[in-house]
Design goal:
The chain is of the alpha+beta class. It folds into three domains: 104 residues, Response regulator (Rossmann fold, 3-Layer(aba) Sandwich), CATH 3.40.50.2300; 91 residues, 2-Layer Sandwich (Beta-Lactamase); 229 residues, Heat Shock Protein 90, CATH 3.30.565.10. Helix content is 46%, strand content 23%. The chain has twelve helices and 15 strands. The chain has a five-stranded antiparallel beta sheet with strand order 5-4-8-7-6. Strands 10-12-13-15-14 form a five-stranded mixed beta sheet. It has a three-stranded parallel beta sheet with strand order 1-2-3. β12 and β13 form a beta hairpin. It is elongated and about 135 Å long.
Length: 438
C-alpha cells in the first residue's frame, strides 16, 4: 500500500517490483493507472522471479510503461528511466498543447465541428453547441447526416461535391450561416470542417439599413411624384370647371373625356409610387423594360429641370424572375445618380437587352452618363457602405444597398468609368438571370 501512497505525491517515475508483501505489483500498477490523479505517473516494473514473456505481457497490460528482469544492468536501468522521463515530459507537453488548443477552440465565437471520413461527428466547440441549441443531442461518433436532418431539416450540405459549401439556414428564430470545408486531398471520402456563424444581428442591422435607404430614396422621389401629380390635378380642376360652365353637351363630354385621361395619369403615378413600397413575398416574372419605363417616367421631370434627357432603349419581352419593388429601388438609385452626374444638355442612355452569360439567359441593363467620371482613387470604395461623394446630401448607402439587392437576385452590378477632356462618363451594368436558383 506504500506504493499507492507514494504515487499520490505524483513522482515522475515509480520503479515497482512485481513481488510485494501485501499486494501484487501488477495490481498496484493497475490501481495507479486507473486513478485519474496518478494515471500520468510512469511505472517501471522489475522482477527477478517473473521473467517470462507472459509475465511481461501481463505487466504491460496492467499499464506498466516498462518491464525489466533481473539481472538488471545499471546502465540499462538508468537509460530506461531517462527514456520514461523523456516520454513523461513529451506527454505533459502534448497535454498542455491539447488543453491550449481546446481552450482556443472553445473561445472562438464561431461554432466549429469536425466530421471524420466516415461521416461521424468527432468534436465541437462550445459555440457550436450553443448555436445548435437544445433541439439536437450532440454525441461524439453520431452520424452527421442524421444530425443535420434534425437540425436543418436536410443533409444536403454534406452531399455537396465542391471543396467549400456556404448557405444560410434558420435555426429556431435565429439565422445562421453554415460553411462546410473539406479536409485533405480531393478524394470522395474525407473529413470535413463545419463552421456555424450566428448572423441574426447582422441580418437585422442590414435590413434596418436597407429600410432606411429605401425611405431616403422615397423622400428623393417625393419631389418628382409631386410634380407628376400636380400637373394633371391642375388640368383636372380646369376641365371640371369648363364642364360645369359649358352649355353644350358635346363640349361637356369632351371635357369629361379629357378629365378621365388626367385621372388615369394620376392613377398611374400613384401605382408607381406604391410599387416602390409594396413587395411580393415570392419572386414574380417581371418585364424589365416595362419596369424601367415606369422608373424613367418618374425621373423625367427631375432630369428635365437639370436639362438632362433620359433615353430608354429596350428589347421587347426581356423578363426576369424577381422582386419588382427591390429592382425599382436599384434602377431608381442608378438613374438618379446618372442624372445628377450628367452635365446640362446631355443625355442619360438606359438600355435593356437580353444576354447569355455563363450559359444562362438573363437581362443586361446599362445606364450611361457623360459626366466627369469616377476618380481612380475612389473606384474601389464606390460600393462600400457609408461612402459618399455628395457630402451631407448623400447617405453613402445607395450603391451598397443596390449591390446587396442585385446579389439577392443572383445577379451582378459593375461599372466602368473614364475621365478626360474630350471623352468622359460612367456606365453602370446590372445583370439579372432570367431564373433565380432556389
Amino acid at each position: 500500500m506504500g506504493a499507492l501512497e507514494a504515487a499520490q505525491t505524483l513522482p515522475d517515475v515509480i520503479i515497482l517490483d512485481v513481488r510485494l508483501p501485501d499486494m501484487s505489483g501488477y495490481e498496484v500498477c493497475r490501481r495507479i493507472k486507473g486513478d485519474p490523479r496518478t494515471a500520468s505517473v510512469s511505472v517501471l516494473q522489475i522482477s527477478a522471479s517473473f521473467v517470462s514473456n507472459d509475465d511481461r505481457v501481463r505487466a504491460l497490460e496492467a499499464g506498466a510503461d516498462g518491464y525489466l528482469t533481473h539481472p538488471i544492468d545499471r546502465m540499462v536501468l538508468v537509460a530506461t528511466v531517462r527514456a520514461l522521463l523523456r516520454l513523461r515530459t513529451a506527454e505533459a507537453a502534448a497535454r498542455q498543447a491539447a488543453e491550449q488548443w481546446q481552450s482556443t477552440f472553445d473561445a472562438l465565437s464561431e461554432g466549429l465541428a469536425l466530421i471524420d471520413s466516415d461521416g461521424k461527428l468527432v468534436r465541437w466547440n462550445k459555440a457550436f453547441a450553443q448555436i445548435c441549441g437544445p433541439k439536437v443531442q450532440l454525441d461524439a461518433g453520431s452520424d452527421a447526416s442524421s444530425f443535420f436532418a434534425v437540425l436543418l431539416g436536410t443533409d444536403d450540405p454534406l452531399r455537396q461535391n465542391g471543396r467549400r459549401y456556404s448557405a444560410e439556414f434558420e435555426i429556431g428564430k435565429r439565422t445562421v450561416q453554415l460553411i462546410v470545408n473539406r479536409m485533405g486531398s480531393d478524394t470522395e471520402h474525407q473529413g470535413k470542417i463545419l463552421i456555424l456563424n450566428d448572423i441574426t444581428d447582422s441580418k437585422l442591422a442590414e435590413y434596418a439599413i436597407r429600410t432606411a435607404e429605401k425611405l431616403a430614396a422615397t423622400g428623393k422621389l417625393a419631389n418628382a411624384i409631386a410634380h407628376e401629380i400636380n400637373n394633371p390635378l391642375e388640368a383636372l380642376t380646369n376641365l371640371i370647371y369648363l364642364a360645369s360652365t359649358s352649355s353644350s353637351l358635346m363640349e361637356i363630354k369632351d371635357h369629361v373625356s379629357h378629365a378621365s385621361e388626367q385621372v388615369a395619369r394620376i392613377a398611374r403615378v400613384t401605382k408607381q409610387s406604391l410599387a416602390f413600397h409594396r413587395e411580393s413575398e415570392r419572386p414574380i416574372v417581371i418585364d424589365v423594360g416595362d419596369l424601367l419605363g415606369e422608373v424613367v417616367s418618374l425621373f423625367e421631370r427631375t432630369a428635365a429641370q437639370r436639362r438632362v434627357h433620359l433615353s430608354l432603349s429596350r428589347q421587347p419581352r426581356v423578363s426576369v424572375c424577381g422582386f419588382p419593388g427591390q429592382l425599382t429601388q436599384v434602377f431608381g438609385n442608378l438613374i438618379r445618380n446618372a442624372t445628377e452626374a450628367a452635365p446640362p444638355t446631355s443625355e442619360v442612355v438606359i438600355r435593356v437587352r437580353s444576354i447569355l452569360r455563363g450559359g444562362h439567359e438573363g437581362a443586361r441593363v446599362t445606364i450611361h452618363d457623360r459626366g466627369s467620371g469616377v476618380p481612380e482613387e475612389i473606384r474601389e470604395k464606390l460600393f462600400d457602405p457609408f461612402f459618399t461623394t455628395k457630402d451631407l446630401k448623400g447617405s453613402g448607402l445607395g450603391l451598397w444597398v443596390s449591390k446587396t439587392l442585385v446579389a439577392k437576385h443572383q445577379g451582378t452590378i459593375r461599372f466602368r468609368s473614364c475621365q478626360g477632356d474630350r471623352k468622359s462618363g460612367t456606365t453602370f451594368e446590372v445583370y439579372l438571370p432570367t431564373a433565380m436558383n432556389t
